[in-house]
Write a structure and sequence with these properties.
Number of helices: 27
Largest sheet: 7 strands, parallel
Shape: globular
Oligomer: single chain
Strand content: 15-25%
Strand order of the largest sheet: 11-12-10-13-14-9-15
Helix content: 25-40%
Distance between the termini: 22 Å
C-alpha cells in the first residue's frame, strides 16, 4: 500500500548504497516489495525478546523460519562420498535449543569452516532457513545466521531496544537483512499521508500513521507494538470497508427490473404441491429475497447455510417467483454431476409444473432445461432455442452457460451455487447476459463466520439458514487411527457391511483417482514433506475399490466415481447409486457438493488428514440425509499429537459448520479477501486477522457506510482516496466490480 508519492520511490534508488540492485530485485520478485512505501508496510511477523527463546517445538514444516536460539553442541564428522572418496567429506552438525525443543543444523563441505568457528556452545544467534525432516527429526540445512552479541555498538544499534522484529522472509533474503533495509527507509515514515479521517482517529484514540509505522518497526516496549497494531488494523479494515461500501452505493444506483410474482401463479402452485412445510428460517430468508427482487436495483445476496439446510429449495422458490414475473432464471453449478443432479431434483420437485409446452403439463408450467459442455448437438441446440425464445423459464448448467452463443430472452436472476468454485470473470459473464443487470443470489454450503462474510462478501447482503429441515438425522463422526490401531479400520469395514445389511448404502472417499496419467503428473511434481515423511502417496479410488471388492467388502456391489470418467458414465453410476443398485460408491470429492441420496448412511474418508476442515464437513453432509442416522469415519495414519489429527478431532467433535469454519480459519489464516489469493499472491491483510478482529471489522463497516453515504467520492479525504487507489490496483478494482 503506497500511501503517498514520496513513498513511491522505487527501492533500487534510495537503497542502492545499502542494498544494491540485487537485493532490491529479490524484494520485488520474492516479496512483492517495489517502493519505499511497500517496504514500510512489510510488518514484522513477530518479535523476539533478548531474554526469551523461540518455540522450536512449534516450527512449521517446509516453511522458511527464523529462530533465536542457543548453541548446545557442535560436532564435525568426516565421511566418504563420490566427491570425497577417501573419507575427506566434512559435515558439521550443530544442535540448538530454546528450552522448548532442540533443532539440528547441518552444514556440508567447504561451508563448514566459518560456522565451526562461529557457532561455539553457548553462542546465541538468529538462524534462518527452510525447515525439513531428516530421519524423522526436524532440521535446517545450511541456514543463514546472525550472531547476537550485545557487546558491539553495531549490534546494539541494529537491534535497537530489547525487541527484535522478525520479518516474513524468503530463502534469498533473511529477516535481519530486511530489518536493516527497513531501518534505512524508516525516516520516510514521517511523510506517510494518513487515510483515516481525523474525527475517527481522535474518537478512537488511535496514534498517527507515521507514529504507528515507527512503533511497529522499532518498538521499545510491548505497548508500542500494541498501539501500532491497533492503528494499522483500523487502516486495513476501514480502507477495505470503504471500498465495499462504495461498491454497495454504486450498485444501489444501477437500474433493474422489479420482479414481483403473480398472485396465483407458478410459485403458489408449487407451494401447494410441497409435501412438507418450510422451516422458519427458509420462510424468513425467502421473504428477504422476495423483498430484494421487488426493488428497482439489482439484488446482491449471499445465501449461506449448513449442508442440507434447504438452500436449494429457497433458491428454487426465488427462481419460480422470477419466472412468474415474466423473467428467466439461470443456476450456475460447479460440476456436470451437480448440474445434472440439480436438474433432476428441480424437475422432480416441480412435477407437471416443469412440463411447460408439453402434453400433461400444467397451464402455469414452464420448461426447465439443463446445459452442460458434454451434451449432444441436437439436445444442446434445443436448449439454446428454448432459452432465446423464453420457452424455458429455468436453466441449470455449468460454465457452458457463459459461452457467447448462449442468449436469453430476459435473464432476471442468476443463482451461483458454491460461489468459491467460480472465477470472478465467469460470474460476470453470466450477469452480462441480462438486458439490464439481473438480480444475483450466491449460495455457499461452507458456512462462513459473520466477519469473514462481511469482509469477503462485504458488498452482498447476507442471509443465513442455520436450522436443518425436519426429518434430517444426526451424524456420528469418529476418527479411525489406522496406524496406531489397525483393528479400528477392520471394524470400520464391518460397520459398512452392517449398514448395507440393514438396506442402506455407503460412500468411501479417497484423495486421488490412481490412474497412470495422475501418477505421471505426481512423479513430475515435488512430493510434499508429509508425503516424504509418510513415504507413500495419498490413497487412490481405483486401488481402494479393488482392494475392498476383493477383501473386506467382498460380495457387496462396489462401484467407482471420479472426475476423469466420461460424463455419461458418471451420470449412469450416480443413477444406479441413487436407485439403490450399488451398495458402496468409492469416489473422489466429486460427491462433495449437492449429491443427495437419502438411503446412504455411512461414509469412510480415507487419508482424511489430506482434506481441509470445510471439505470434510461438506463430504460428511452427504450422509444422514434420510430418516436413518448417519455415520462418518475419518481414517488417518497421522500420529495422535500431530496438528492433522487435532483438525480431525475438531471435525468429529461438532456438526456445527460455523464453528468448524472458525477452526479452519484460525489454522489457515483467511487468504486474501480481495481475490488476490485466486492468483496465488499473498494476502492484502497484514495485521488484521478476520476471526480475532471481528469487532474492528464490524465497527469499520459502520463508519465506512456513514462516511460513503455523506461523501461517496471521498472529496474531503485525499489521504483515504490515495490509500484506496493503492489497495485497489486495477485487478482488485475489477474483482470488486464483478462482485
Amino acid at each position: 500500500m503506497d500511501l503517498v508519492p514520496a513513498l513511491e520511490e522505487p527501492l533500487e534508488q534510495p537503497l542502492k548504497s545499502v542494498l544494491g540492485p540485487a537485493t532490491a530485485k529479490v524484494m520485488a520478485e520474492h516479496l512483492g516489495l517495489h517502493t519505499v512505501g511497500d517496504l514500510l508496510h512489510h510488518y514484522p511477523r513477530r518479535y523476539e525478546e533478548r531474554g526469551q527463546l523461540t518455540h522450536l517445538a512449534d516450527l512449521p514444516m517446509d516453511e522458511h523460519a527464523t529462530v533465536v536460539a542457543q548453541v548446545a553442541d557442535a560436532r564435525l564428522h568426516s565421511f566418504a562420498s563420490a566427491k570425497a572418496p577417501r573419507g575427506k567429506g566434512q559435515r558439521l552438525e550443530v544442535t540448538i535449543t530454546d528450552g522448548s525443543g532442540r533443532l539440528q543444523l547441518v552444514f556440508f563441505g567447504s561451508g563448514v569452516h566459518k560456522p565451526h568457528k562461529d557457532l561455539l556452545p553457548g553462542t546465541r544467534a538468529m538462524f534462518s532457513g527452510k525447515v525439513s525432516v531428516f530421519n524423522r527429526r526436524l532440521q535446517l540445512a545450511h541456514p543463514a545466521y546472525e550472531l547476537l552479541r550485545a557487546d558491539t555498538d553495531e549490534s546494539v544499534e541494529t537491534w535497537a531496544g530489547a525487541l527484535i522484529p522478525l520479518y516474513p522472509a524468503t530463502a534469498k533474503l533473511e529477516s535481519w537483512k530486511i530489518g536493516k533495509a527497513i531501518q534505512t527507509v524508516l525516516p520516510h515514515a514521517q511523510e506517510a499521508l494518513d487515510p483515516l479521517p481525523d474525527s475517527l482517529r481522535d474518537g478512537r484514540g488511535l496514534v498517527s500513521l507515521p507514529e504507528a509505522l515507527l512503533k511497529i518497526h522499532r518498538p521499545h516496549t510491548k505497548a508500542d507494538i500494541a498501539d501500532a497494531r491497533a492503528r494499522l488494523k483500523w487502516d486495513e479494515a476501514f480502507v477495505l470497508q470503504v471500498a465495499l461500501a462504495r461498491r454497495r452505493h454504486a450498485d444501489a444506483q444501477l437500474p433493474a427490473v422489479p420482479r414481483v410474482p403473480a398472485p396465483d401463479g407458478l410459485l403458489t402452485s408449487f407451494d401447494a404441491r410441497l409435501p412438507f412445510t418450510l422451516t422458519e428460517g427458509q420462510q424468513k430468508v425467502s421473504k428477504e429475497i422476495f423483498d430484494d427482487l421487488a426493488t428497482d436495483h439489482p439484488m446482491h445476496r449471499l445465501l449461506q447455510g449448513e449442508v442440507g439446510s434447504g438452500k436449494t429449495m429457497v433458491a428454487l422458490r426465488a427462481m419460480l417467483a422470477v419466472v412468474d414475473a415474466g423473467g428467466q432464471a439461470a443456476m450456475l453449478a460447479p460440476t456436470e454431476v451437480l448440474a445434472q443432479q440439480h436438474h433432476r431434483s428441480v424437475v422432480e420437485m416441480m412435477g407437471e409444473l416443469a412440463e411447460g409446452g408439453m402434453l400433461g403439463g400444467s397451464d402455469r408450467a414452464t420448461k426447465v432445461v439443463v446445459l452442460t459442455g458434454s451434451m449432444g448437438t441436437a439436445a444442446r441446440r434445443q436448449a439454446l432455442l428454448d432459452l432465446v425464445t423464453g420457452e424455458a423459464g429455468i436453466v441449470i448448467g455449468t460454465h457452458a452457460l457463459i459461452e457467447d452463443k448462449v442468449k436469453f430472452h430476459d435473464l432476471a436472476l442468476v443463482v451461483v451455487d458454491e460461489q468459491h468454485r467460480f472465477g470472478v470473470e465467469q460470474r460476470d459473464a453470466l450477469r452480462g447476459k441480462g438486458k439490464q443487470p439481473p438480480h444475483l443470489l450466491v449460495m455457499t454450503a461452507t458456512p462462513i463466520p459473520r466477519t469473514v462474510a462481511m469482509t469477503v462478501f462485504g458488498d452482498l447482503e447476507t442471509s443465513v439458514l442455520d436450522q436443518l429441515p425436519a426429518g434430517r438425522s444426526p451424524i456420528a463422526s469418529h476418527v479411525v487411527p489406522a496406524a496406531d490401531k489397525p483393528h479400528f479400520l477392520a471394524r470400520a469395514w464391518e460397520r459398512v457391511r452392517e449398514e448395507v445389511a440393514n438396506g442402506h448404502q455407503a460412500y468411501v472417499v479417497c484423495p486421488r483417482i490412481g490412474d497412470d496419467e495422475e501418477e505421471k503428473k505426481a512423479g513430475a511434481k515435488k512430493k510434499s514433506p508429509e508425503d516424504e515423511a509418510e513415504k507413500r502417496p495419498p490413497l487412490a479410488v481405483l486401488d481402494i475399490a479393488d482392494q475392498l471388492a476383493k477383501g473386506p467388502l467382498h460380495g457387496l456391489r462396489v462401484e467407482v466415481l471420479h472426475g476423469r470418467m466420461a460424463p455419461d458414465d458418471k451420470d449412469a453410476v450416480m443413477r444406479r447409486f441413487t436407485a439403490g443398485d450399488t451398495d458402496v460408491l468409492v469416489a473422489t470429492t466429486v460427491i462433495e457438493v449437492g449429491v443427495n441420496v437419502p438411503n446412504a448412511t455411512a461414509m469412510v474418508i480415507m487419508d482424511a488428514d489430506r482434506f481441509g476442515v470445510s471439505q470434510l464437513h461438506q463430504l460428511r453432509g452427504r450422509v444422514g440425509r434420510g430418516s436413518a442416522p448417519g455415520l462418518c469415519l475419518l481414517v488417518s495414519e497421522m500420529p495422535e499429537a500431530s496438528p492433522a489429527r487435532q483438525r480431525l478431532n475438531a471435525v468429529a467433535a461438532t456438526l456445527d459448520g460455523f464453528e468448524l469454519s472458525r477452526v479452519d480459519l484460525e489454522q489457515r489464516r483467511e487468504g486474501d479477501v480481495l481475490g488476490q489469493a485466486q492468483s496465488g499472491a499473498r494476502s492484502s491483510l497484514r495485521v488484521l486477522a478476520v476471526i480475532e478482529d471481528e469487532e474492528v471489522i464490524a465497527e469499520a463497516r459502520e463508519e465506512a457506510a456513514r462516511l460513503v453515504a455523506a461523501d461517496p467520492e471521498l472529496e474531503t479525504l485525499p489521504g483515504l482516496r490515495t490509500a484506496l487507489d493503492a489497495l485497489l490496483d486495477e485487478d482488485r478494482e475489477q474483482y470488486l466490480d464483478k462482485g
